[in-house]
């Protein structure tokens, strides 16, 4: 969903640039090859080995964030509208993609106990239950699950599962465990339990990394409205 309120969009692409590493800063790379224009949603990348006069490559996205952006700014612009739409009855997914060391874990997790530093997932937990606490005349049931895809296998806290398809649900994971969660703390507890069971490998850039798998935290919400009418919708964080 567009954060500018102009129209609904199927997919929004948002880019967040991390600060230069110590090695990059020492080599004076980060600022010399990358230019971020948040107002225009544009990133310019310069080739440090380019011939004189070679232009920079420009890329335009729905939103871009420089390395000075805060967790709250990223959530409010890129994720809050999507979670709001989920709470109105639409399904939604937040998918973080990037190489090892680009800041995916920081953006998605951050420091859950710190309001200023918590990432997309814990912010969404608080967002969902803040909405529920303000709602009147409706009852909510929130269930959560945590799965990983590792070496083409789907696992639920270490247990192998199968991918199925049905006319009612479309593609779904058979026998995936769903846990009733009553507040953000219970959702975070499930996330912590799942982290203990996930597969960890190594890459050239990170000796302890989960880059070889896909982690997906799912939230399923059921609303019982006036007259007993039920609504179901899902939100996924990858």
SSE class: alpha+beta
**Can you identify the CATH class of the largest domain?**
Alpha Beta
Measured between the Cα atoms of the first and last residue, the distance is 18 Å
CATH fourth-tier homologous superfamily of the largest domain: Kinesin motor domain
Average pLDDT, all residues: 84
**Treating each run of at least 4 consecutive H or I residues as one helix, how many helices?**
6
CATH architecture of the largest domain: 3-Layer(aba) Sandwich
* Unreliable stretches covering 5 or more consecutive residues: 1-7
Note the main sheet.
8 strands, mixed
User: Which topology of the largest domain does CATH recognise?
Assistant: Kinesin
Helix fraction, binned, reads 25-40%
Number of strands: 13
Binding site for ATP: 98-105
Organism: Hippocampus comes
InterPro entries: Kinesin-like_fam (IPR027640), Kinesin_motor_dom (IPR001752), Kinesin_motor_dom_sf (IPR036961), P-loop_NTPase (IPR027417)
Protein name: Kinesin motor domain-containing protein
